[in-house]
Amino acid sequence: MRIFPFFLFALLAAGPLHATCGGSFSTFVAAFKTEAIAAGYAPETVEDFFASAQQDQGVLRADRSQGVFQKPFIEFSRRLISQNRIDRGRRNATRYKSVFDRIEAEYGVSRGVLLAFWAFETDFGAIQGDFNTLNALLTLSHDCRRPDLFRPQVLAALELYQRGDFSPTRTTGAWAGEIGMVQMLPSDILESGIDGDGDGHVTLKTSAADALMSGGRMLAALGWRAGEPWLQEVVIPGSLDLSHTGINHTKTVAAWAALGVMARQGEMAAGDLQASLILPQGHKGPAFIAYPNFNVYFEWNQSFVYVLTAAYFATRLEGATVYDAGNPNPGLTGAQMKALQAKLQDRGHDVGKIDGILGARTRRAVQAEQVRIGLPADAWPTAALLSRL
């Protein structure tokens, strides 16, 4: 979920949108033109903006083949985090020290957080995507899976075009419409774009200063709490009531400490800070305490495994040790996960789409069934749970 500039809210609140998903793509684009003109854009501007619009089947294929998010945390994090990325991240921290100093002073976002996003989103700017951004946004708006997420982005791109900061034919980026080194959607750029290098332009594709400053401002707007941590590896006692774990449960840091939860490195945050205890692969695997800033990550990306990996990588870039992987119980295959989600849904749980991905809603449902059946309630689905269901 992205934040949208006020003018987009005004457009959306003015009345029902004319361009509905599905059907003929050309009819859809024509309706979008009518909508844009009704919103106050000059007809010639609208015609020029949409003149080259095409549906992109490559975007739809990319949207439907995100199998990497089905991987469990240990495998996923080891795939994304390498010593090379750590070394390059630390070199970039030195190279852009003055930029990160400014971000921390103005927005309170720690440099490791932005370095991790920069690494994962575009490999520090090296791979920014070559999809035509307008076509990607229109294709995903026309597609009926998540039209409401992408439709406002078309209007935001039109606003950027009118300001001279977007080209319908030359602006490229990721398949989901994000642009630049830290991959920001058009509405993010309108709301949070910063001229970090002082050249008079917000150039997120070629200016690291612009991209990083803009990313920091966006995180601050999304609710980042200055000077507070976001994630920390912990050690849990064998006697812990596992039903209290998960991002949907919180206690004060002092309360977790009273239950025997300890930092694996350093000290935990202030005792009155609210926090969740996360066991991404159950009570036999790694354990993390997630502070309020961790929730802001879900405004950037809604994949649990991506968010946790990005947050953990940020701690590594700032000196944390490699997590203790432990010896977690084997997880489920993709097919088994889908079967489990179907069984959970049949029992009245909201797991969202049956897609084989262990997301937040599936974890909550798994934990509830573990409590009911009497299995360790760590939200990690196993063959034993699937069999019992």
UniProtKB/TrEMBL annotation:
Residues 333-388 form the Peptidoglycan binding-like domain. Residues 25-314 form the Transglycosylase SLT domain. InterPro entries: Lysozyme-like_dom_sf (IPR023346), MltB-like (IPR043426), MltB_2 (IPR011970), Peptidoglycan-bd-like (IPR002477), PGBD-like_sf (IPR036365), PGBDSf (IPR036366), SLT_2 (IPR031304). The keyword Signal applies. SUPFAM superfamilies: Lysozyme-like (SSF53955), PGBD-like (SSF47090). The keyword Signal applies. Residues 1-19 form the signal peptide. Keywords: Signal. Pfam families: PG_binding_1, SLT_2. NCBIfam families: MltB_2. This is Lytic murein transglycosylase.
